[in-house]
Each structure stands twice: as structure tokens, then as C-alpha cells.
From TrEMBL:
PANTHER family: SODIUM_GLUCOSE COTRANSPORTER 4 (PTHR11819:SF195), SOLUTE CARRIER FAMILY 5 (PTHR11819). One of its GO terms (cellular component) is plasma membrane. Pfam families: SSF. The chain crosses the membrane at residues 6-26, 46-65, 77-100, 121-150, 156-176, 188-210, 230-249, 270-291, 311-337, 365-385, 397-414, 421-444, 450-472, 506-524. Belongs to the sodium:solute symporter (SSF) (TC 2.A.21) family. The keyword Membrane applies. InterPro entries: Na/Glc_symporter_sf, Na/solute_symporter. It is a multi-pass membrane protein. Keywords: Membrane, Transmembrane, Transmembrane helix. One of its GO terms (molecular function) is D-glucose:sodium symporter activity. This is Solute:Na+ symporter, SSS family. It is found in: Membrane.
Length: 525
């Protein structure tokens, strides 16, 4: 593995940045009661929600993984972000109001309000396991690999522990408020640093991308043939939206930021703001990854593209800022994961079984569960390099588990006849099929791309949920209050919005996002 050096000035900038983040997070923490600790007092404005949501979503998978994928297969990886923007519009219009009106702490809690406790416990357990062993451990491992580029003799486990302590130092004492306020700084640094890197990248090798685009090269195509191994065009329609709903609308780590909004209107604006920020990742993450194919040909590991660009292209001083931006993505992901995991455990399990449910006790349990979660993730993280195939299996498992969960949410929100027993049977059936596919996928679907398998699992789960629901009694009326879609609510909202000026109308900005997304697909088709 090639190693790099970093100047004392750049190291000083990174060190000062880390101290600033810890100080700022602690200064703005709230832990006086459970609502303050887990949901920042439900007081956040749309700007804060949007920046925090963007920072939390730019994980090691996005920043390092997408640039690496762009280096390897071209621009097609941006389809996940574009589809995600469409999902954000859907989320803002249909799901977000129900989440906020139902006043839930966690997304699994919403399942209990709509269905029953069985669905809540199942989904919460899935989220906690994924948060610790995949997301948190993956972020820690990615951070350690980057540090080892500079200090190859450093112990991997020690680096992981240091990063875990940095993220935990402000997240655990101050809760979601600390995490969000730290993410505001991290988002700004990440955006500024990435823009600078993009400009330098284009100055050094922009002609390579322009020539690829002019020659109609496949690397610059978002719409790929059906047989494409990266993103077949049909997968954009039938597969990505389902996984997008799971990531943006069912993911506690991200949605918890939306739950902190002080109103439905602020939450909606925050999500749409994130949509515009996410659109920028085409220019600050994906295109530099393609240009790096010419600047740094033959990299052994595509995932090292982004760190390599940072360390080789950025001049002294700016390197420290960009390195801080890279660490921002990793630490913000960790803090988001820790907070969501502690919220899930405390509110979905401890609060349901313990007799002592006062706010102070819940906050204490939340802090303890955060410590345990980050400790387990730090212990597991080094194993990711040794058991990479297991990690791939686990990621594939999640892609199989997601469709039944999305199906349960869609059926529950848009169909009032579906009940708790039907939803739980659908979720368990989906889990059984996921395990089956993990071992026997070649015999069932052959070499069919996983994006094309997703719709089969979704439709099957929805059918199971609906048919089994018909075998049991209708859900009680209280199960349908603030948990199901109402066309009358949408009509009344549209009537109210007619009196609003265009720049305050969330439907106008939703339309702008959809039009811009369509234009990008057309330009790069």
C-alpha cells in the first residue's frame, strides 16, 4: 500500500478541528430529559435538519465508496443519489407528516402505533444489529484505513479506538443536540473542502472527463443496458426506489434528524434542502472519482481513490482542511449511529420492559447503551478486513430484508385494512426468504442483479401482508389515527398553500427537485 506524508501545519489544522468539534458538540448538548437527549427537544429549524441530515447521510459508504465505484464503473453510482432525491420528495409529502404527528421517538415505534409491538421489536432489533456491526464498524474501519495511509506502522485497533473515543466524547454526554450541532460544522467543512478538491481535480484532469463525455463513453452514462452489472436501467425503476425508501424514510439514523424538527413544515423544508445538497454529490464526489481514473490509474483498491486524491492533490494548508472534511464524514456518521442506536434500545426495549421510566433514568440508559454500542463496534471493526466476504453477505442480507420492511410501511400507511398480525407475518416471511436467498439465491434467481430481485420480494411481502390481514379482524380506529394517509389532508394542505408565496411552498421546491433530477438523467443518458 502506497503511503503519504502530511505536514505539521496540516496535522495542526486537523487537531484543532477535532478539538473544535468536541467543544462545540459538548457546548450545545442537551440531556436534561429524554426528549431533549434523544430528539434535541423537537426544536430544530429546516436549515439545521437539512445540514444535519446531509452530514449524517455522507457516510464512509457515500464519500469513499461512491468515489471508488465511480473510479471503477463510472457515473452510474450516482443513480442511487438521484433516486434518493425522488424518494425524499415522496417522504416529505406523504410519510413525514405522519411521523411527526404521531410524536414517535423511533421509526419502529411508529410500526407499533400502526400495527403492534411485535413489528416494533423485530424492526428495532434489525436496526440495532445493522447499526453496530455494519454501519458503525464500517465507518471506524474506513477511518483506520485512511490513517494507515499516512502512518502505516500504526496499530489498526488503536486507531479505531481513538476515533470511537472522539465521536463518543461529545455524542454520549450531549445526545442528539450535540450530534446535530457538530454535524452543522462538519457539513459546512465537508461541502467547502469537497468543492475545493473538485476544482483542483478538474484543473488537473478535467479534459479527461470532457473527452469521455464527448465520445459518449459508457463511464458517463447514468442509463445503462439491462445486462449492465453495475446498475441495469430497469433497476432504477423497480429496485432503487425501494432501497431508497428504506434508507431515507425507514432508517432511524437519518429520520431521527427529521423527528427533531419543530414542525411538519420545518421538517419538510429540511428534507428538501437535503435533496439539493445531495444533488451536489455528482460534482463533489462522483465526477472527481472518474477523473481520478486518469490521474491515478491502476489503484489496487478503488475505495482508496478519495483519500488518494485528498493526500496527493491538495496543497499544504488546504490538505489539513480537506483531511478534516474527510474525517467529518466519518465522525458525523459515527455520532449519528450511536445516537440512533441508544434511542432504539432505550425507547423500544428498555422503556417497554422497565418499571423505572422517568426521563433521567432513560437518559442514563441511553448513555450507557451508546457506550456499549461503540465499544462492540470498535472491537468488531478490525475483523471486517479479515472477513470481507461475511460483510458482503451481511450487506446482501440487508438488501433482502429491506423490501418486506418497506412493504409493511407502505401497506400500513396506504391501506387501512392491513393489521398487526398481517404485518408481522409478512416481516417474518420476508426474513425467512432473506435467509433462503442468502444460501440458495443461484438456484432461485440465477445471476439476476439484486436490484431486479428487490421488486419480487416487495410485491410478495405486500401480498402476504394483505392476504393474512384479511384472515384477522380489522385494526382498531386508534391504530389508524395519525398513522395512515388521508387524501383530505393533502387537499386541505394544497388549499392552504395557495395563499403562500412560491418560495415558501414546499410543493414548488419538490417540483424543482424532480425537474432537476430529470434533466440530469437526460444529460447523462
Amino acid at each position: 500500500m502506497e503511503t503519504f506524508t502530511i505536514s505539521v501545519l496540516d496535522l495542526s489544522i486537523v487537531f484543532i478541528y477535532l478539538l473544535l468539534i468536541i467543544w462545540w458538540g459538548l457546548k450545545n448538548g442537551k440531556s436534561s430529559d429524554s426528549q431533549s437527549y434523544f430528539l434535541a427537544g423537537r426544536s430544530m429549524s429546516w436549515k439545521v435538519v437539512g445540514l444535519s441530515l446531509f452530514a449524517a447521510s455522507i457516510s464512509s459508504t457515500t464519500l469513499i465508496g461512491q468515489s471508488g465505484d465511480a473510479y471503477h464503473t463510472g457515473i452510474a453510482v450516482f443513480n442511487y443519489n438521484l433516486t434518493g432525491i425522488i424518494v425524499m420528495v415522496f417522504f416529505a409529502i406523504f410519510l413525514l407528516p405522519l411521523y411527526l404527528k404521531s410524536a414517535v421517538f423511533t421509526i419502529p415505534e411508529f410500526l407499533e402505533k400502526r400495527f403492534d409491538h411485535r413489528s416494533r421489536y423485530y424492526f428495532s432489533a434489525i436496526c440495532i444489529i445493522g447499526n453496530i456491526f455494519l454501519d458503525a464498524a464500517g465507518a471506524l474501519y474506513a477511518a483506520a484505513l485512511i490513517i494507515k495511509l499516512i502512518v502505516p506502522e500504526a496499530d489498526l485497533q488503536l486507531i479505531i479506538i481513538i476515533f470511537a473515543i472522539i465521536a463518543a466524547s461529545y455524542t454520549i454526554p450531549g445526545g442528539l443536540s450535540s450530534a446535530i450541532n457538530a454535524e452543522l460544522i462538519q457539513a459546512v467543512i465537508l461541502i467547502i473542502g469537497s468543492v475545493i478538491l473538485t476544482i483542483i481535480c478538474f484543473n488537473n484532469g478535467g479534459d479527461y472527463f470532457y473527452n469521455l463525455f464527448a465520445s459518449d463513453d459508457i463511464l458517463t452514462k447514468l442509463i445503462r443496458p439491462l445486462a449492465d452489472t453495475a446498475t441495469p436501467w430497469l433497476g432504477l425503476i423497480v429496485g432503487m426506489p425501494v432501497l431508497g425508501i428504506y434508507f431515507w424514510a425507514n432508517n432511524q439514523t437519518l429520520v431521527q434528524r427529521v423527528l427533531s424538527a419543530k414542525s411538519v413544515e420545518e421538517g419538510r423544508k429540511g428534507v428538501l434542502f437535503t435533496g439539493f445538497l445531495t444533488m451536489s454529490t455528482l460534482f463533489i464526489i462522483v465526477l472527481p472519482g472518474i477523473i481520478a481514473k486518469n490521474l491515478f490509474p491502476g489503484l489496487e483498491k478503488p475505495d482508496m481513490v478519495y483519500p488518494t486524491m485528498v493526500l496527493q492533490l491538495m496543497p499544504v494548508g488546504l490538505l489539513g482542511i480537506m483531511f478534516a472534511a474527510l474525517l467529518s464524514a466519518l465522525t458525523s456518521t459515527l455520532s449519528a449511529i450511536m445516537n440512533s442506536t441508544s434511542t432504539l434500545f432505550t425507547m423500544d426495549f428498555y422503556a417497554q420492559f422497565s418499571k423505572n421510566k422517568d426521563s433521567a433514568r432513560l437518559v442514563k440508559v441511553g448513555k450507557i447503551s451508546s457506550c456499549i454500542a461503540i465499544l462492540v463496534a470498535a472491537i468488531w471493526a478490525p475483523n471486517i478486513g479479515q472477513f470481507g466476504s461475511l460483510l458482503k453477505y451481511y450487506q446482501e442480507m440487508l438488501s433482502y430484508i429491506a423490501p418486506p420492511i418497506v412493504g409493511a410501511f407502505i401497506m400500513g400507511i396506504f391501506n387501512k385494512r392491513v393489521n398487526g398480525t398481517g404485518a408481522f407475518i409478512g416481516l417474518i416471511t420476508g426474513l425467512f426468504i432473506a435467509v433462503l436467498l442468502l444460501f440458495f439465491k443461484p438456484f432461485i434467481f440465477g445471476d439476476l442483479h439484486f436490484l431486479l430481485i428487490v421488486p419480487f420480494l416487495l410485491v410478495f411481502s405486500m401480498i402476504v401482508i394483505y392476504v393474512t390481514s384479511l384472515m384477522f379482524s380489522k385494526p382498531a380506529n386508534e391504530k389508524l389515527t395519525n398513522t395512515t394517509f388521508s387524501i383530505n389532508d393533502i387537499k386541505s394542505e394544497i388549499t392552504e398553500l395557495k395563499s403562500e408565496s412560491w418560495h415558501k411552498n414546499y410543493l414548488f421546491w419538490s417540483l424543482v427537485l424532480l425537474i432537476l433530477s430529470a434533466l440530469i438523467w437526460i444529460v447523462f443518458s
